[in-house]
């Protein structure tokens, strides 16, 4: 893309009246929510959720920032996502069209899902899992992942899903932090045309003297040889075959914990973000309805996220299933066995709504628009984007080549912490502005603050995004660490504002543009990674003395991990020898993959002799970012030793 097209003003796209006529979202919702915030949410809670006991108070904010929503209400999330659709006569409706990477398929109706979830709930109960016990789920993208989550929800046993791409180390910390009793995993999954083992990572994660894990349940997906610990490991199929197909769902308190999901923070230790039941389910279903415009009777919806991320939780499991929608679930990568795989899937299932990430869109742009053009993707009627800012060029490409110049695009801003979509256009209502998430959805309030914490509305001025009112799907805390919750989110600008950690600005039309993280969190292909976590992984390698990590902009992945590493004295010569340095870089990259997971592997590792530090010893990442992005190095006056940057640049052959 040329510079010119980047800076040129872009066309905007008013709502198509035909779309508006059928849209779930309406302009009146903004007014209704503004007039009565709590009343609006109470209405959504009763519209989208079936309560066993109605709530008596919409919001209790008396112990802010610890919120209680729909107080006194009782519900069962699994009943809401499964059983009630069967009871309403929709048991034959397809819940999940599963497409395995090797081409195997399964069609799961709501009646099937009810049987599977009931059996799984019985099976977990037979292992002693009950209300309040935590269960770790470490699975590929297979329907059992949704079944396992719903079975936990049914029992009131909070699940902690750990992304299948995370390492044994990462799994170990997460299992221990939440004291999980059971781990549900698989022998492996298919990735890039080959089976990729998962179970060995679980064994390694549990290979510590102290573990709370009593049982490991293994789903057979690939059939590969699987190490086995007698007495601890059990086959999912054996448990399921022995389990009854019926299970009575008990109601749980609206504020009962539904799940924990770990996300990177600014320190090395991942945060266990936890969500509760009633508010979370309400906002997931409401947003899936008004933002993705899901019509459960007619749409075929496809969210391409992995279940290991919050997008998979909210927009594969809880949102669409609460609505009773039909969706596609795909196991593998977009280029297996060919680069048209997604478009082939859309053609095959006549997908109408596609929700994906900008990094995928940019990859498809790189592969060329002639690839989607080979397939009939005219069933699409709405496109969505999530995970990072979508640059206007990618937005316009997405609309033209995937959306056939007719589909509205919803650019949805939210976070693991917010639980559900917060800032997004409403399709059929909003005039779309490519590249901007635009404005808070009805029921949500946001502002942009300056350095002093003062709200402003001036266009093009950059500030910090904050949320100004509690919302139903908000995190209820950090698992086991209430103080960190307050510190991280409710102290930067005082206790009135939820600090999102994102930079933002308004344009002249009052649209909000999200500008990326303002803290030491990187966003690589829509995945949050912390600089501190990767630094400590690098420093844990015996040859490394010190490390600094920055997120450098990258055309495809948004940001890429770039590491600057100082070696321990005794290894410096080794690195100097031709060839050894290359091996060492490879060794360090693999070390990070082992410690955290392949997604955290630095794209580039630069071996340096010094790092730029302030007089107080803080690493000046801004300067390293200049180097990583090939820019002229900025202001160095606050460096303790102003010659360091020259040394780094010279060392890198600049
Ligand atoms: C970024 C993913 C711009 C943002 C749902 C946020 C976005 C972080 C957008 C949360 C968007 C997500 N535009 N930035 N539409 N969506 N982000 O917790 O920096 O994995 O703070 O949740 O992703 O990432 P998380």
Automatic annotation (TrEMBL):
Species, as recorded: Nostocoides jenkinsii Ben 74
Binding-site residues for CoA, renumbered to this chain: 191-194, 311, 525
Gene Ontology CC: cytosol
Function: Catalyzes the conversion of acetate into acetyl-CoA (AcCoA), an essential intermediate at the junction of anabolic and catabolic pathways. AcsA undergoes a two-step reaction. In the first half reaction, AcsA combines acetate with ATP to form acetyl-adenylate (AcAMP) intermediate. In the second half reaction, it can then transfer the acetyl group from AcAMP to the sulfhydryl group of CoA, forming the product AcCoA.
Single GO BP term: acetyl-CoA biosynthetic process from acetate
Gene name of the encoded protein: acs
Cofactor(s) in the UniProt record: Mg(2+)
Gene3D superfamilies in the record: 3.30.300.30, N-terminal domain of ligase-like
Cytoplasm listed as a keyword: no
Entry PTM: Acetylated. Deacetylation by the SIR2-homolog deacetylase activates the enzyme.
Binding site for Mg(2+): 539, 541, 544
GO molecular function annotation: acetate-CoA ligase activity; AMP binding; ATP binding; metal ion binding
List of residues binding ATP: 387-389, 411-416, 502, 517, 528
Residue stretches making up the AMP-binding enzyme C-terminal domain: 533-618
Documented EC number(s): 6.2.1.1
Position of the signal peptide: none
Keywords: Acetylation, ATP-binding, Ligase, Magnesium, Metal-binding, Nucleotide-binding
Lineage: Bacteria, Bacillati, Actinomycetota, Actinomycetes, Micrococcales
Segments forming domain Acetyl-coenzyme A synthetase N-terminal: 27-81
Protein name as catalogued: Acetyl-coenzyme A synthetase
Pfam name, any one: AMP-binding
PTM annotation (N6-acetyllysine): residues: 618
Record's catalysed reaction(s): acetate + ATP + CoA = acetyl-CoA + AMP + diphosphate
Coiled coil residues, start to end: none
